[in-house]
Design goal:
The protein is mainly alpha-helical. The protein folds into two domains: 96 residues, Recoverin, domain 1 (Orthogonal Bundle); 64 residues, Orthogonal Bundle (Recoverin, domain 1). It contains ten helices and five strands. Strands 3-5-4 form a three-stranded antiparallel β-sheet. Strands 1-2 form a two-stranded antiparallel sheet. Strand 1 and strand 2 form a beta hairpin. Helix 7 packs antiparallel against helix 10. The longest helix is centred in the N-terminal third of the chain and has 19 residues. The chain is elongated.
Length: 190
């Protein structure tokens, strides 16, 4: 019975150390890969509990030395397990994608950006400008709906409704400059 209590205490200590390195959603701020500040807790909102658990299992599998961080040695060991001999430069490059040491929160953040990320603000603005030859900063609502539903990766009616809940539309015109800000930064409190 004393052994179980000791294991629980070790686990609590490890969790406390992990939260000190940003491994748990402490609610503090930490440098985001994009260079801006991003609340640590937000990354956990991108995924449901099942997904977070799967990422945790993957992280644990990669973290060969069980120190709560993924380093070059951990990545090299994974490559070797599947019969590959990794290039050290490639491993360094992979780890540079993380904003500091690659703990679980950073690991989740990287996946969140890859899975839920969007293009930079300037790219989004330039994309909208292609449909706005006069440079007004606005596009007709019906025109944008038509494009979204009939060109490229087509939106369903439900996806259009969801998008329009957040879109800054006045007088039948979508203000795409404000819309890009919402896409990248969320709605700001007025």
């Amino acid at each position: 019975m004393g052994e179980k209590k000791e294991k629980k205490e070790k686990k609590k200590k490890k969790e406390a150390e992990a939260s000190d390195t940003g491994d748990a959603g402490s609610g503090g701020e930490e440098s985001a890969p994009s260079g801006g500040k991003k609340p640590v807790g937000n990354v956990f909102a991108l995924f449901n509990q099942g997904q977070i658990q799967e990422f945790k299992e993957a992280f644990t599998m990669i973290d060969q030395d069980r120190d709560g961080l993924i380093g070059e040695g951990d990545l090299a060991a994974i490559y070797q397990q599947i019969g590959l001999n990794p290039d050290p430069k490639q491993l360094t490059s992979m780890l540079k994608e993380a904003p500091g040491q690659l703990n679980f929160t950073h690991f989740l953040t990287l996946f969140g950006e890859k899975m839920h990320g969007t293009d930079p603000e300037a790219t989004l603005r330039d994309s909208f400008k292609m449909f706005d030859p006069e440079g007004t900063g606005k596009l007709a609502e019906e025109y944008v709906k038509d494009l979204l539903m009939n060109v490229g990766d087509q939106f369903s009616k439900d996806e259009i409704k969801q998008t329009w809940k957040e879109a800054p539309i006045e007088g039948g015109q979508l203000d795409y400059m404000k819309f890009v800000q919402i896409i990248k930064r969320g709605k700001e409190e007025e």
